[in-house]
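From the shared-data thread, chain only:
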Amino acid sequence: VGVTGHLYSPNQERGIYKTVDGGKSWKKTLFINEETGIIDVSHAPNNFNLLIAAAWEKDRKAWDFTGNGEGSGLYKSSDGGDSWTKISTPESGFPTGEGVGRIGLAFYDNNIVYAVLDNQYRREKDKEKAKDSDKLDKDDFKEMSNADFLKLENSKLNAFLKSNGFQEKYRAENVKQMVRSGAVKPADLARYLENANTLLFDTPVIGAEVYRSNDGGKTWSKQHEGYIDDLFYSYGYYFAQIGVDRNNPDKIYIAGVPLLKSEDGGANFTSISKENVHADHHALWINPARPGHLINGNDGGLNISYDDGESWTKNNSTSVGQFYAINVDNQKPYNVYGGLQDNGVWMGPHTARMDNRWLQTGHNPWKSIMGGDGMQVQIDNRNPNIVYTGFQFGNYYRLDLGSGKRKAIQPKHELGETPYRFNWQTPILLSPHNQDILYFGGNKLHRSLNQGDRWEAISDDLTAGGKKGNVAYGTLTSISESPFKFGLLYVGSDDGMIHMSKDGGGNWENISASLPKNLWVSRVVASKHKIGRVYATLNGYRWDDFTPYVYKSEDFGKTWVSIGEGLPPSPVNVITEDPDNENLLFVGTDDGLYATLDQGATWQWFQQGIPYVAVHDLVIQPEAKHLVVGTHGRSIYRADISHLQLLDAEIMNSPLYVFELDKVRHSPRWGNSYSTWGKPVT
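Structure, as tokens:
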């Protein structure tokens, strides 16, 4: 077994382990260092003693990710994994050193082995991907003088400004005037567009490379000339999978954003991604007994091909949706909305049931309303056609589902100012007091009084100020407004800070000083039952801390009481309070769903009917009395909690209590079928 180890911190458990008693006991047979784990282990098809392992050094923090290092490389065992020798040496022909990233492996036989490498060394300047000389790029402005900027054609500058989402007030003439007056510099145009992730996604690295060994890993040769563009881009840590056809040593497949095939050992590639195959590929099974039979796992689910990728069937009968956030409206039947990892935002009636007739009729009750990585959703309770949602890093829109119109509503900083920071899952909230008022969390809290048309920052930076890195950090993660009072606001951040304002953002107070430091505030929730009550959950996942941090305050956050002691060790993602029963709370963790009937004094597993999976969001539909559960891996579930809402102290202390049963109308069709071969009606 290859062990990558802790995700965010050094540890000794990384390496390779071997068992000879079916898993009862394990022996570590390879250890490199506390930062380097094993990302892949491959064996020769008919020789389990011959193994090659791919070591991967990475350094991941909440604000920065380095997916390469000196520890990355290849190791070989000829005795079934009892001992290992490093084979990626400078003499072997395989890259070595700091720029070596994730590696994937595939054996053809004892001698022929393929490796795909995420090479994080920088490209040579003269070999970087050519850019359109007729278009301006943000990097053009970094070293540009004022004089050269003022010589730019207005049409060319306007094309750049419009295509890059600059506010309407920033057009060629007035931006040039700002430069003439000294208000801004040309470099400010580049800074306007840059955030932490720019360092990660815009870095010109070598990217994907394919190597082959014909002598069992002693020597390696790169199989292609030049770069394999648009496969890994700069984030090959997400991919690095390779496969070889067991019947043809020159036919290989590599997985990245597209899925590519080569029939000449990697010298040339063609894409076998088709219209019904989602991008971002992570797994590929090649049938050794039937050439051309492929099973592909990607960000959209599962696809199967029987003709070597010429055509694919989409196999989505298993519910594997990874929901970041969900919400519901007040329609009858009510609709459920959800933002999914790399599958946009979808909505559909809560009464929908999986039915194979969808494939026959082409009618799917769920529909897509947004692309990208779908994020949070807010629905205007006066007009359910008005929906606010979007994709990663705060790219939100106001949608009119009736007319099909949409408008981008992300708050923009002023040219020359420090750019706002937005979390991957930027929080938004419609005020429960006025549905024209929308809150939007960056590193500051923004408020719009007119549905996102105009914004004002109603706070200074409510985080610790961010950290230098290639991941957005120092951002707000949760927003809540008390239903008792307009302007009683709470916000939480990814660096452990919770702030409260009692006057609509005029003044802010840090109320998290007594809580554990630096942890991601997964939720801060103002109570629906008492004005001073507020709940908070902290998530230590990004510090490899799996303590269930759940807190309650009865005095606007001045003092906090821990109410998570009865939960098993697992990061907490969400808490929600029942609107009818103040003692009834639900929390979603990476381990599943839990409920309490006594405000957290005791907790119970509430997972019946839901697979063991991380729960990322919870929402209660108050009229239907349904708890809707958004999981990150097995889609959406709901439960009728009407009886739980009735559980008061009197009922809980009774030796026996019988609830009133719903009336059921008898049907003569029960037990019968429409034909001899059909299933009986129940």
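The two ends are 48 Å apart (CA to CA).
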